[in-house]
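FAQ

Q: What does a record look like?
A: Structure on top, sequence underneath. For example:
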């Protein structure tokens, strides 16, 4: 655990529509930060009245939790998982895709900006 930020980006046809970042905490795990970014992105998409969504993330664990391949049983993540699932239910269609980190550079940059918001 250490300091963590989170970021999320909404794209429409590869054009950035909206991006946000925030400071997650001083003693957060990378998985906590990944869930925070997912929840942020889902909330942003919901606020934009998006009904169908493709979520791309570089955390294989989180993607596998959300698509049902792995069960989320970690006491440290279960509340975040349930919050993400609650938001997921607000969409007509939602798909999760794992991408390598080098294809997720904008979200990573935003998470670093989130770190700076603590200063």
């Amino acid at each position: 655990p250490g300091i963590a930020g989170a970021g999320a980006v909404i794209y429409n046809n590869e054009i950035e529509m909206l991006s946000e970042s925030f400071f997650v905490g001083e003693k957060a795990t990378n998985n906590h930060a990944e869930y925070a970014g997912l929840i942020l992105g889902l909330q942003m998409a919901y606020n934009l009245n998006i009904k169908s969504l493709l979520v791309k993330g570089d955390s294989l664990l989180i993607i596998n939790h959300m698509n049902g391949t792995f069960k989320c049983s970690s006491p440290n993540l279960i509340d975040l998982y349930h919050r993400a699932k609650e938001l997921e239910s607000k969409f007509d269609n939602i798909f999760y895709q794992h991408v390598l980190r080098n294809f997720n550079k904008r979200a990573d940059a935003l998470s670093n900006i989130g770190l700076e918001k603590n200063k």
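Q: Is there anything notable about this one?
A: Strands lie at 2-12, 15-28, 52-57, 93-98.
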